[in-house]
Design goal:
alpha/beta; Purple Acid Phosphatase, chain A, domain 2; about 25% helix
Amino acid sequence: MVESINALPVPVTCVIHTGDIFADSIDNPDVLAVATGTLSRLKAPLHFTPGNHDILHKRTGATLAVYTNAIGPLAERADYHDVTFLMVYTEPLHTAVSIDGYDAITWLEHALAETGPRPVIICHHTPPVESFHRNQMHPGWPDTIRERWTRMINNTGVIAVLAGHFHRDEQHWLGRVPLYVSAPMATFWERQPSFRLYEYRDRRLTYRTVYLERKKD
């Protein structure tokens, strides 16, 4: 992935990883070193949002400490040209993970209030919508949290939300705001790894999917 992004024939403003970087092994020093070393070779600026396989429910304290020390904050803002990116860790909104002093929606409300008229793209890990797999629907975020989230992003300058987690390409609507769910780099379920190349123009996003060939054993 790093080699492919670096070789793209178009300018890349930034790269955003929407979580599940470490596959439950962030507190393994060898895995951490390989992952951070590989990703550090990206030429474009890199931003992260942690996923459920990075900060772990049963090892929250330890994995949280490793993440914030080695990767960065749970939420951050980045401005490129006239667009604001807000990367935010949302797992505590819909799982048993609890982090003292951290509230994703409160952080996001304050960040959105500071952006003014600038277009905003929110990036996080687990989409708030229902998931369809194994031929049935599975619940998304709790209704009250999802409704509050949807109202908030529709009453501000948010033009798109980017997420991952589902291991599928999907697109949904949160009110008037499009939600783009990316397929994974992981090869679970015989998936071909891919990443997305987004283009921003006139307050709208379009994208192309870039596929990688799986290396043979």
